Amino acid sequence: MPTMQRYETSPRVYREFCNRCGATVFWHCEERPRIVDVSVGLLRASSGPLAGEWLDWVHDRVSFSEMAMDKALIGFLESGLQNWGKGKTVSH
Which InterPro entries does the entry link to (predicted)? Predict the structure, then answer.
């Protein structure tokens, strides 16, 4: 019996989750049909939790920062990401 369940959280935005444990697996939307946001905490990569052999990490921005209520927090996140990403290849 398949455990993947879909929930439409807002019009044309979908979240897929395990109907046994409730873990979010990924989300996607019709506005960005070629992009899927995966819950990386579910991946088991030999390189560790960042799964660098599978994923490209973006270091130069915080997604949806324009929607944040706490702009100061976004500033700290962006600064931390940029410092962490120094010396790494920035994707996208």
Answer: Mss4-like_sf
